Amino acid sequence: MQLHCLGVSGYHPSQTRQTACFMLPEIGLVLDAGTGFHRVRSRIATPQLDIFLSHAHLDHVMGITFLFDTLYQKETQVRVHAEQPKIDAICQHLLSPLLFPVAPPCQFVPLKGDVALSGGGRLRWFPLKHPGGSVGYRIDLPGRSMAYVTDTTAAVTADYLEKIRGVDLLLHECYFPDGLDQFAQTTGHSCITPVAQVAKAAGVGRLVLTHVNPLDDIDDPVGVEIAQQIFPDTVLAEDEMVIEF
């Protein structure tokens, strides 16, 4: 299975990174719809596309407004899954007729339980602590698994640790390097050492860092080597990176 990293920045795009969007083309699944969503079109390989949103902040949902171009001359049906209050906020504000006068070609589906995936897989979602609320996702496929945790403050005491235990691949936000712990708590984001500690405590196979600060538009804005000292199999996601798992 391939995970395509289409946008790995937080907050806003930078010269090298678009905002949050990840895709499993083989099963038609997209995690978040930030500005990196414009890269989905060339990777559509299924008649159904399911987009799962972590929350409704603009850096994770702006790509919904790209759907007309994404689906141009394609027969793909799109469902957008999110918590009902997030759907309501998107429809009322982002898709207000004053901002976006024609409704995008998609169906909104409230998250109400586990979701069956094509090929016999299953997606589970769980709450995360973040201003306005967020959710993480665990995807279990035949013979492999992954989890997506973004927009939360990492800690080995966090409730979500048990939800991600033992996954082959953990995609986890890391907005800050170490030393900004208080700011991370205030904004609902993570510093690098706690993220690595979570990966180790949860017994995951690999750790991929994402949702980095766009102001630090450099090769390594968070200090990957620090994480590797705690959890050796750690890499920093980059736009258009393809990860096999």
TrEMBL record:
Pfam families in UniProt: Lactamase_B_2
UniProt entry keywords in alphabetical sequence: Hydrolase
InterPro entries attached to this UniProt entry: Metallo-B-lactamas, RibonucZ/Hydroxyglut_hydro
Gene Ontology molecular functions: 3'-tRNA processing endoribonuclease activity
Gene3D superfamilies reported in the protein's UniProt record: Ribonuclease Z/Hydroxyacylglutathione hydrolase-like
Top-level EC class: hydrolase
Domain Metallo-beta-lactamase: 31-211
Enzyme Commission code: 3.1.-.-
Keyword Hydrolase among UniProt keywords: yes
Record keyword Hydrolase present: yes
Protein name (database record): Ribonuclease BN
Organism: Blastopirellula retiformator
